[in-house]
Structure formats: structure tokens, C-alpha cells
Amino acid sequence: MADDGATVIIDVGSDTCKVGFTGQDSPHKIFPTILGNEKYHTLTGEEPTTYIGEEAQHKRGILSIRNPVQNGIITNWDDIETIWQYAFTHKLEVIAEEHSVLLTEVSLNPREKRERAAMIMFETFNVPSFYLAIQAVLALYAIGLRSGTVLNSGHGITHVVPVYEGASISHGFQGIQVTGHDLDTYLATLLLERGHSLNTTADHEILQLTKEAVCFVSQDYEKAIGNPEEWNNFETTHELPDGKIIVVNNERFRVPEALFKPKLLGLEDLGIHEAIAKSVSLCDVELQKLLMENIVLAGGSTLFPGVVERLHKELDILMPPTLHAKSKILAPEERKNSAWLGGSIVAALSTFQDMCISKAEYEEVGAFLVNRKFI
Questions:
Q1: Cα 228 to the chain's mean position, in Å?
Q2: Containing H/E element for 139?
Q3: What gap in Å lies between CA 35 and CA 18, rounded to an integer?
Q4: DSSP 289-346
């Protein structure tokens, strides 16, 4: 339970919702950002039961699943309101109107989405104050920085965001099409070639767990993929939840390679190393050395073994000699929760309430204050 008056931190992503309180060093609860109703129900005139979070995940095979967050953006407000209510009542066991709320958001979140979030928090949940914070900026705060380049790659987004003194540099933003969900789908395709069918909605979690357990980033992909006789050196087994054993070898490094080579998925896009280099190059020249020497990884899709070493290698090739800098990559152990942790740190500041929009301010000025106060 929270201390009286503790700020509630909500980091809602395309895959999971992380919630907790000010000052905690990890989320109090993490649950899937999904809802579902039974595909088939008796014609009794009753409304079908709505399942949320883990319960929806466990019943996924018999439910019509909805995810109100797509590519990091809230797309269904009724459903996200249901999820937030579930978080307050069932996960945190608090009354919303007794707690300030810090909500995270993706970079370049549309103005109308930001205003709608504030409106729901104040008008539906009656919170006393509200703060909206960009996930990439919070990822820096989580490790004590105010400036740097954040590579945030999760289930629904892969973004590169340069930040200077706590403010994101919007003209340096780079969005990449390859996300954790795309890697899951790619793994399913490769496993199907081996005769393992994991293509139903119920297999969603299995694919994620398999990817996290066996995949790694190759330091020389072209050499590895070009030597089939050595693929057996990468061979390993993985046990599925039903006890079935699958064998994988080159899939282990082929899947994460799509982060560096989106063309493997048929996408014409920059790799993460190229996006970082381009992002930095679009910023003021006097900031580029600082931004290249403070590259911070955040999100679950940056957890693959070997990703830091490979990024170093690729970035040092791409960097112009005139920059006189070597890439420095910071990969915090808890980077899957970086945005939430940064929010917990910000909300613990003595000045936090002054940074928020209060209920009185909202009632006087309106929701558009969000776009004036949180830049």
C-alpha cells in the first residue's frame, strides 16, 4: 500500500502497464495492457464479462482481445479508462482522488491525446494534480542524467530521442518501424519453417518468452549467416509451457538482427545504429559530442545480449571524424522499467507539486494547459 498522499506513477505501454508509487525503485504491479470479452456467450441479454490484464492473458484463446495502446499511442479511450480504473482499484488498491498522478507518454504524442488524458484524470478520476512526462526523458532521469540520446525500444515502439537539459529535441526524433512485436512475428515465421506453429493469439506470450530466452545480437551477422556449417554451434533447446521442446540455432541471431537491418522484415527503414547517428546529426553541432557520449538504452527490446557491443561497433563506423568522440552506451540493468523509475524519481522531488497541473488550474484554464505546461 502507498503512503498517504504518495503520487501514483502510471507507465502504460503497448504491451504492459506498470504502476506504483513515488520513491519505489520498481513498479508495484505490472500487467498486460489488454482487455477481452468472450468470443461466444449465451444469449441471455447480459453484457459479456470483460477480463483485464493477466486474466485476459490467461483466457486469451477464448476471448476477443483488445489493446487500447497501439505503437505507444492511446487509441481507445473507453478501454484505457477501464484499465486505469483497474490499476487504481485492483492493483494499487487506492482511491484515485486521493493521489496525484504522473502519467508517461511517447515523444511527439498528439496534442489532442495529451489533453484527453488530462481530461479523464481530472473529470473521471478527480485526481488533485496531474503530470505528463515523456518516457525518453524519464529514462535519462532514471540514471541521473538530464542530457543524452535515448534509444527506447519496446513491444510497440522503437524511438530515438535526443534530450538536452530535460527537454526532448523534437527535430532530432527518429521513429523506427521495427518493434518487439515485429520481432515476435519474425520468430514465429522462422519457427514455422522448422515445423513449430506459434501463430495464434494465445501464443503471444510464448513467443515473447522464447525470444527473451534464446536470442542474441551477432557481432558479425554477415559472417554468421554465411557459414551454415557453423550454425550448429548456436543450437540450443527451449522448453515451451506445454512441455514441448523446440530446437533453435540461427533463429537466435536472425531475429534481433532486424533491429539493425529492417529489410529482413521487408521494411525500408534505418537500423537502430543509423537512426541514432541521424538523430544526433540533426541536433546543434555543439551538442553532438555530448549526445553521442551519453546514449542510453531503454525498453525490453534493448535487452538482447550483444546489443551494446554491436551498437558501439556500428556507431564508431558511422561517426564523422570531425566529431572527435567515441560512442558511450549506457545500458542500465533495469532498463525495461526505465521510464517508470524515472517517473518515480521525478515525483519524489520537493518541487514536484509546483510542476504539476492542479485540479483548480485545470478547472480555470482547461485541458489545453497540458500542451502549454508540459513541453
A1: 34
A2: helix 135-141
A3: 16
A4: HHHHT-EEEESGGG-STTHHHHHHHHHHHHS-GGG-----EE--TTGGGHHHHHHHHH
133: helix, coil or strand? strand
The burial class, CB within 10 Å (0-12 / 13-18 / 19+), for 76 is middle
Pick the CATH number of 180-263 from 3.30.160.340, 3.20.10.10, 3.90.640.10, 3.90.550.10: 3.90.640.10
| pLDDT tens, residue by residue, 30-57 | 999 999 998 876 555 677 889 999 999 9
**How do strand 158-164 and strand 148-153 relate by DSSP bridges?**
antiparallel
Q: Which helix (H) or strand (E) holds 11?
A: strand 8-12
Residues in the chain predicted with pLDDT less than 50, given as ranges, are 1
C-alpha to C-alpha distance for 63 and 38, rounded to whole angstroms: 4
CA gap 238, 245 in Å, rounded = 6
User: Which residues are registered as beta bridge partners of 132?
Assistant: 103
Residue 356 CA to residue 148 CA, distance in Å, equals 24
Q: How far apart are CA 71 and CA 110, in angstroms?
A: 13
Ranges of CATH 3.90.640.10 domains, the chain: 180-263
8-33+68-136+338-373: CATH topology: Nucleotidyltransferase; domain 5 (3.30.420)
User: What are 103-139's pLDDT values in tens digits?
Assistant: 999 999 999 999 999 999 999 999 999 999 999 999 9
Supply the pLDDT for residue 367: 94
